[in-house]
Amino acid sequence: MKEIVCPALKGLPKGKKARAIALGEGLKQVYPDAACALAYEQDPFHLLVMARLSAQCTDKRVNLVSRELFRVLPDARAFAGAPLEKIETLVKPCGLYHTKAKSIQDFSRILVERYGGQVPDTKEALLALPGVGEKIANLMMGDVFGDPHIVADTHCIRLSGRWKLTDSRVPEKVTRDLEKIVPKEEQSDFCHRVVDFGRDFCRAMNPDCEGCPLRK
């Protein structure tokens, strides 16, 4: 499928950094209150679990499944001590449930054994947890620990390509490219706004270019 090029590019700066800043300001006007789409109720462990469940699954479904999941298993100690089959049953609607359930239980046990059931506050420690890659670690660092990072999810990758901020679709490469041009203090909020914009306007199929507020 041929990649769509954003019609709004004509009115934006040609330099990538200047263009990223301009897009960030435009997104800020459309979505002044940037927030994570995962309803984790300000619980770091819940966000870690939900981020793991979100792989190849919509945030909407993860939010729905997590209500019952955390009612039954509210914290790391509960996940660590539960039968794996019980976790699998609870997370099955999110897909890939064997792999997801095992990694969640594995990192829950590590959190209990090494961190008293709490989520560690360094990127290095987060990346050492089973099933936690850079996207999840960056999300945790920005939303929980106040250290903004690029979170290269599917919306971020798609829109960064359409806006010619990167020529790659590899998450790690997209992350590196955006780190260079999106101001550090804006990186987490920028990515949250991109997610909202990707859902509301710049969809993968049939993007609403005519209704796009960034063209104004």
Keywords:
216 residues, mainly alpha, Endonuclease Iii, domain 2, 56% helix
Structural notes for this entry:
This protein is 56% helix and 0% strand. The chain has 216 residues and is mostly helical. The protein folds into two domains: 92 residues, Helix-hairpin-Helix base-excision DNA repair enzymes (C-terminal) (Endonuclease Iii, domain 2, Orthogonal Bundle), CATH 1.10.1670.10; 100 residues, Hypothetical protein, domain 2 (Endonuclease III, domain 1). The longest helix is centred in the middle third of the chain and has 19 residues. The model has no long low-confidence stretch (mean pLDDT 96).
Helix-strand blueprint:
Elements: H1 16-30, H2 44-53, H3 59-72, H4 76-81, H5 84-91, H6 97-115, H7 123-127, H8 134-143, H9 154-162, H10 171-181, H11 187-200
Quick structural summary:
The protein is mostly helical and 216 residues long. The protein has helices at residues 16-30, 44-53, 59-72, 76-81, 84-91, 97-115, 123-127, 134-143, 154-162, 171-181, 187-200.
CATH class of the largest domain: Mainly Alpha
Gyration radius, in Å: 18 Å
Q: Major beta sheet, specifics?
A: none
Relevant CATH superfamily of the largest domain: Hypothetical protein, domain 2
Backbone structural class: mainly alpha
Overall residue-averaged pLDDT value: 96
Q: Helical amount among residues, as a percent range?
A: 55-70%
- Specify the CATH architecture of the largest domain: Orthogonal Bundle
Instruction: Classify the fold: give the CATH topology of the largest domain.
Output: Endonuclease III, domain 1
* Percent of residues in β-strands: under 5%
Distance between the termini: 28 Å
